Fold:
Amino acid sequence: MSVAPTLLVGTRKGLFTLQNQGEGSWTPTRHDFVGDPVTQLLTDARDGARYAALNLGHFGPKLHRLAPGADAWEEVSCPAFPEGEEASVQELWALESGGADQPGRLWAGTIPGGLFRSDDHGQSWELVRSLWDHPGRAKWFGGGADEPAIHSICVHPQRSTEIVVGVSCGGAWLTRDDGASWEQIAHGMRADFLPEEQQFEPDSQDPHLIVRCPAQPDRLWTQHHCGIFRKDGDAAWEEITTAPVSAFGFAVAVHPQDPDRAWFVPAVKDQCRVPVDAKVVVQRTNDGGQSFEVQSDGLPQSHAYDLVFRHALAIDASGDRLAFGSTTGGLWLTQNGGDRWEQQALRLPPVYVVKWSS
Amino acid sequence: MPVHVRFTPQLRRFLEAPPAEVEGATPREALEQVFDQNPRLRAYLLDEQGVLRKHVALFVGGELARGADALDRPLEPGQDLDVMQALSGG
Structure:
């Protein structure tokens, strides 16, 4: 039995839940947390629970849970640094579920760059000390936010104790022992915002988002501040220089079965964060980055200044259905891998995060 | 020393925060008494290091309390607390 797909859109003014009304039209069926910024979303595939991270303008970061079958969200504990640390959580920026063999396990990444673990569905959280206390963290610095921050948590689908974490700016970190120890794996990334002799310094890299192919988890893709990179197993990251429109952007999505197929939403460059020629396009590679096609069918091709944030592009489990939202509240969906996009007749608040759910 | 504490009605969107009469020699001591009765309220007003959130405004005896030590300055007799939200955001 197929489950009706649901699209969750976290915006500056709340969470919109959309469902398919047919013929490419998706309509909001719920609007939760009206007026409040929603910074991250998670549907836990293991039990169907949904999580929404809020960043209340006055009253701080919060985490809410919609239990399976429930109609009302419930506030649960938000990750917090231990008393005495010179840090407090400003925003919950990454949220992922643990492996199928780790019921109740959730991972959270924050601004500033803390990694937190819960083993009770978010009722309590513990700072992952091994990464926070790692000497390499001293080299991290602010990128997407004023403070260095964790935006990507890629749990290996077969080996749930193997996790890759992405940091802006702090590179990519790997644990193979469920977070007991960490190693920097950003070798091969290139940062042209650094002096020439430091451009390949792993601890200074700014991956905007790192994604892992579920069917071939040794393949990682990143949309980096300075380009597009891919990585296979223990090899260094390889820069992909064939993107025809621009190699700058924030979001990346990889096909769940085909590691060579990935999508990127480009912008001009870091100093000019708008679509190239004011045209919204998506770049897709089908061959691991050897070449790209530029998708524009159904996307605005004039006077468009939509930027797509790192968590605002999502692909579903089929690999055919994608959606992305923009800083100016645009929302586009495709049912065919982007060959044709449908603009939704909505005027949403700025979009921070888009996730498929069931 | 008895202290009356009132909270911005804006908090009602998220949780109940009725006026309270508590004991305390400083704003922090008074607020801790409130948090004992209403634990969820703490994270709405203070971060995990006990610092007043940036966009929460504390009035002591009708005056906006400024500075890093605003929570810890001794209260004078008769001074009550108003915990408001700052004007910010959009």
